[in-house]
Amino acid sequence: TPAPQKFEFQAEIKQLLDIVIHSLYTEKEIFVRELVSNASDALEKLRHLQLTEKDIQDGDAPLEITISTDETAKTITIQDSGLGMTRAELIENLGTIAHSGSKQFLKALGEGGAKNSSLIGQFGVGFYSAFMVAKSVKVYSRSWRTAEPGHVWTSDGSGSYEVEEAADLRRGSKIVVELKDECDEFAKDWRIKEILTRYSAFVGFPVTLNAKKFETVQALWLRSKNEIKDEEYTEFYKFQANAHDAPRYRLHFSADAPLAINALVFVPQDNTEKLGFARLEPSVALYCRKVLIDAAPKNLLPEWLRFMKGVIDSEDLPLNISRETMQDKALLDKLGKVITKKFLKLLEDEAGARADTYNEFYQEFGIFLKEGAALDFTHKDQIVKLLRFESSLTEPGKTTSLADYVSRMKDGQKEIYFLIAPNRAAIESGPYLEGFKARNLEVLFCHEPVDEYVFNNVREFDGKKFLAADHADVKLDDVPQTGEALSEADAKDLAKWLQDTLGTQVAEVKTSDRLVGSPALATNADKFMTAQMRRMMKAMKK
Ligand code: ADP
Ligand code: MG
Q1: This prediction's pTM
Q2: SS3 letters across 486-527
Q3: Whose C-alpha lies nearest to ligand 1, atom 15?
Q4: Choice from 25, 127, 320 to test ligand 1 binding pocket (greatest atom count within 8 A of CB)
């Protein structure tokens, strides 16, 4: 056999190694994720080759990933029975940056390649991340091409590597990482198990760790919808969200353009914030081709969707995405918007098709929609359509949408009226409603303190402004008065007497046609605060 041959890394690789080792990843454990994802890629490529090639090295070798650790030798070994690499491929794939193996493979696939988008690899520092923890890395590899012998590639990451022929190799690659002393935690079985559970639970091939089967879970979001049973969805939800209930809603969808996305997200049964538990943290996980990028990305979905669970997977994300760079932020933002729009559409459809179920959802999670309506400017219009309120025309406990309210508005009615009080009885027994009732004007009944804030922020719906029914700005048409009215002069005297008696407690006392049964009411003349808001402020000052 020929003697080992020494090569210099391409200048770009030297640079890259420097970046990887010193700054790119803060979490060293990520190297396991990268090597396992490479193993999985290699197996997937082999599976495709099996469809077209007859002559494959070790054709009967099962497709699997074998991981072992050795605490004494301080090594971790990750082996796959994938397509392997020839001598030339080792040099090209692991020594130069211009030739990403995935890119080349795609080219080789030719026309069919475009459809096989799951093979599109991203430029990544994947393999080189091993040098964050390694004294040295050995890659034993044997290609699927039967004429090619096996080789071993060796490097300490400092600037050069060696390639030498190696006997007795089976098809695939075996990466042996000799750990730096301070990184010997990665030679521990439990530690690797922990990392696999975190990042590689969805790998699509059997994985063993120190001869024990590592349980993987199906990446349900990549399967086609019509093959998946409800129970499978529920099981997946329970696993992913660490939950015990069944989800209320699920959204499973795929898109190729403008971004490649596979998403499977859920609405849980309970709003735990409402139950008094801590504020929810965003928990829709971000994946790139089944490999976890971030379990709880902060900039992916809008804040108000923090109750959502599930997975968003995009091939367009580089594994080494950094949440800091502007470009990546924009990408996450785009992804988030696509999902948010789809989810809002789902709710809209559900509200139309199954109003009762939707209302149950709304009881529980409506508060998040209100938050979104008030604060998420991008999706405001879509969210406002989903809001529901009781009103003077709904039966107790039943609700109306704003669209339905508007459809019932009387000719000439310009505003959407609302009253805020803790419950229906308080509104119905108060003096504010009667003038509206007498004129057949519908008033929304709002029972949550946040409603005020929502109306102030949303301002209008379908061109109609929201207006508190207890506001002094309310102008109602005359209705024929029943019973005996005071003469104009008597009414003026009474108003003056009231004004003098109440003094500075009121801004103004005037006669009005607004009331029907009650003799007097207090209205709110404040341009910025409704009565409810003032009560809240007062309570806060105490
Ligand atoms: P990427 O996976 O994004 O292409 P990596 O740095 O992780 O980048 O790997 C570089 C290349 O090395 C891969 O594209 C692939 O061609 C090759 N490679 C790495 N690991 C393996 C493996 N286990 N089996 C076969 N080829 C591999
Ligand atoms: Mg990789």
Answers
A1: 0.78
A2: CCHHHHHHHHHHHHHHHHHHCCCCCCCCCCCCCCCCCCECCC
A3: 101
A4: 127
